[in-house]
User: Which sequence fits this backbone?
């Protein structure tokens, strides 16, 4: 971010966090065009606050968002404070009416007993006038309260002009966050369009291999293969080929040590492969040795400054490396 102060959180603002915040702010902005339930918009607020808590937005951005949030939520009670209050009043009114106008409790019965004739008109069965004021509400009042209750509790509503104005301000704040975040990022478009699903293997390189093989690979090999995949996806075929073949050479050396009982010392790829080939009779020679011969030649070609592999060759090499590693692993078991 371009504005950083001393008390900024050790956490960093990520692009996904900025986008998540922006999505919720834009939902509020769209409230002026579409119906949103109170619950839905409150969920937006909760998510915005949660995002601010989880990420390290600098104090300027955080104060901008929180300041606008205070206005939009009326500081304390929330955007729907008035409606929630009305809803509560209606519910409490129903309870009070039930308690006050129902059958009196025992204490009242003992003190007042059966009312005399004079009291009868006042405390007994209410007359018509009292009925309108204290008894069951008339049809007009009942209908209005019932409709208000249903509107508040169940029906979606559109944002007011005040809400829409503040939502726009919030969305502008989000645009500032996103702009500052993107200004600090170097973005590279995936170049590879071959048989391998670039996005999938970049997110999880193990998907290019079976779990049993990937789990058996040492960390150095996993690292080389991951970098090889990334290089292929970003249009760097030479880098991809060299990294994948380095993995093959590492496992060839392991197979050599296991088969001969000797150390590698300073043997080259070709020397190691030739000596390993000598360990087998012609009829017992594993077919994987022929694959290794091909990969050795590919390695020599890539090392030549005049020869540059294309993406198709890099992809086919990576696939062949995968199959070769499977075969070497089976020889070691």
Assistant:
């Amino acid at each position: 971010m371009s504005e950083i102060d001393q008390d900024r959180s050790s956490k960093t603002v990520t692009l996904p966090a900025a986008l998540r915040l922006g999505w919720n702010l834009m939902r509020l902005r769209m409230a002026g065009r579409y119906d949103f339930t109170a619950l839905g918009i409150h969920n937006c607020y909760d998510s915005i606050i949660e995002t601010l808590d989880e990420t390290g937005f600098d104090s300027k951005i955080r104060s901008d968002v929180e300041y606008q949030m205070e206005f939009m939520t009326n500081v304390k009670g929330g955007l729907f404070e008035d409606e929630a209050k009305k809803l509560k009043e209606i519910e409490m009114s129903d309870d009070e009416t039930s308690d006050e106008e129902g059958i009196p409790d025992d204490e009242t019965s003992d003190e007042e007993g059966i009312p005399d004739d004079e009291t009868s008109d006042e405390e007994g069965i209410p007359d018509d006038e009292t009925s309108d004021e204290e008894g069951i509400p008339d049809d007009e009042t009942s209908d209005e309260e019932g409709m208000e209750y249903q509107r508040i509790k169940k029906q979606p509503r559109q944002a007011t002009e005040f809400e829409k104005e503040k939502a726009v301000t919030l969305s502008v704040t989000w645009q500032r966050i996103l702009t500052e975040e993107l200004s600090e990022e170097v973005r590279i478009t995936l170049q590879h369009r071959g048989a391998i699903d670039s996005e999938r293997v970049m997110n999880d390189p193990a998907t290019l291999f079976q779990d049993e093989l990937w789990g058996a690979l040492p960390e150095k090999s996993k690292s080389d293969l991951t970098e090889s995949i990334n290089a292929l996806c970003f249009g760097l075929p030479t880098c991809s080929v060299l990294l994948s073949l380095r993995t093959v050479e590492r496992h060839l050396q392991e197979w050599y040590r296991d088969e001969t009982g000797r150390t590698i010392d300073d043997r080259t790829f070709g020397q190691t492969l030739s000596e390993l080939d000598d360990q087998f009779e012609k009829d017992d020679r594993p077919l994987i040795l022929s694959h290794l011969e091909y990969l050795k030649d590919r390695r020599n070609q890539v090392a030549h400054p005049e020869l540059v592999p294309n993406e198709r060759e890099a992809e086919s090499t990576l696939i062949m490396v995968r199959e070769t590693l499977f075969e070497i692993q089976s020889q070691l078991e």
Q: What stands out?
A: The chain has a mean pLDDT of 69.
